[in-house]
Structure formats: structure tokens, C-alpha cells
Amino acid sequence: MEKYTQFRDKATGISPFIPVASASSSWSLVGVLVLVLRLPLLLLVLPLYPLSPTTWCKLTSWILGLCKVDTSIHGMKRSTDISNFYPKQGELYITNFTSPWDIFIIFGSLITNSTPVLLIPRDNTFYQLKSPLQFIKFALGYDLDLPIYTCSTKDTCFLFAEGTTSNGKSLLKFAPEIQLDKFKQFKFKTLQIKLQPVSFCTPLPMSLSQWCFRMLTNVKLLNAKCKIGFIDTYDDKVLERARELFITNGKLKSVDLGIHEKKQFLAIYAKNHS
Questions:
Q1: What is the pLDDT of residue 27?
Q2: CA-to-CA distance for 47 and 33, rounded, in angstroms?
């Protein structure tokens, strides 16, 4: 990958747009067997999608191999009952962006009594991903026509501040020109999502059918860790404090690369693989 050295962070040496290869496996026969077992179950729960996206996400994540979601709260012991700290209306979660799995984790494990609002920043405008399927497609690199979000304190919002996915090893620069003044009445928190193994992250574009086939034939179990941090009130340092929480408490390494550098990377990558 020497041809992409300009897209390696100088301070950490991390190349956030290069996917982490999964360990080679000779279990292709097992993969076929897993596909045969999973596909009928997936088709069985598919009708639930328009009726209850939350239920659909919970069941689908289980079918595709999400074994465990470990949620913790910054500053609290693991023995503490954290049910009262789960996302609520009037809260904005600044969230890192790993893959389509983020939506399964948010819908299936964190949200209990409301529909989350999923936000993508672009040029000081916040666009809303209206459904799990839209989120999955966006995380896979699809170019979508998204509606502009109209702010309401009745919502539970998740802002994917990086604006794009990476390989799960670092935190990209937040998308430029993010202005959070319209969210002044919200409580601010952070949500860090870590996938294990990180090969489940999707830094490169992929078709929906490719991703589904990969998940249906995958023989590894997926684990996720979620960590919620507190910022609370609004000021002009919210994004700086959020980033500090990701780095110090979530132990993500900060890189000096972001969505603009990723667009440049993808242009070169596509040319080299055409």
C-alpha cells in the first residue's frame, strides 16, 4: 500500500481508509453452511422492517452474528445500573462512524422507547438518514439524496461528526463547518462504538449485495463496545470536548485526515482498481 502513503497520518502512522484484512480462513464450506442457515431466518424477519425497524434490527443483528454489545458509562462502575443513562429525547450524541453495524447497535441495543434521528453533517447543514436501510447504504458509500433535518428537542439525535466511515483504528477529523448552535437546548453526549474484529468496519465503498453476502457467509462472531460520555451543556467548545472524550476515555487515536482526504483517496483507489 505504498502508493497511498500520503493518506497515512504522520503522527500515528495509521492509514484510516485502508480496510483491515480479516484473517485468512479455509472454512469456505462452513461459510456456505452458515449462509444456508442464516438466509431463511433473514427472509423470515424481513417483513418486520416496515412495521418495527427496532425489532428488525435486533433480530437481524442476532442472525448476522452480533454476539454481544457491552455498554458502559464514563465515570461509572460496570456494576452500576446504567439503564437510566440510555439515550433519551432532547439529547444529541456525537458519534464515531464505523460501518453499517452502527445502526444495528443503536437501534437494537441502545434505543428503547423512541426512534433515533441519524444526522450527517455537510457544509454547516445537517442531513437526516430516515431509515436503517438508508444508513446502511450511506455507510457503504452510496450517494443518497437526503432531507435537511429540522431541529426538535423531542428527538434523540446521533451526529456522525466525521461524516464518513474509517477502518475503526482512529478518529477522523470532524467534518468542517459544523455549527451546533441550533442544538443549544439539547444535552450533549458522546457515543463511541468499537467493533471487534475491526475487519467488520467498512472504510471502502461496497455494494449492498456484497455486504449482505459477506455478513451472511461470515463465520466469526462480532462483539461491540459502546461508551457514553458526558458533555451536557452547549458552548463553542462542544466539538473539542467531544473529541477529547473520544481520545482520552475511548482511547481512539486522533488522525489529521478527514472526509476531504477520503474523497481524494477514493479517487486514486478507484483509478488503481479500474
A1: 57
A2: 24
Query: Of 139, 211, 210, whose CA–CA distance to 168 is shortest?
Result: 139
| SS (HEC) of 84-119 | HHCCCCCEEEEECCCCCHHHHHHHHHHCCCCCCEEE
| Per-residue confidence (pLDDT) for residue 268, from 0 to 100 | 93
The residue extents of the domains of the chain are 27-75+89-272
Q: Residue 240 has what pLDDT? A: 94
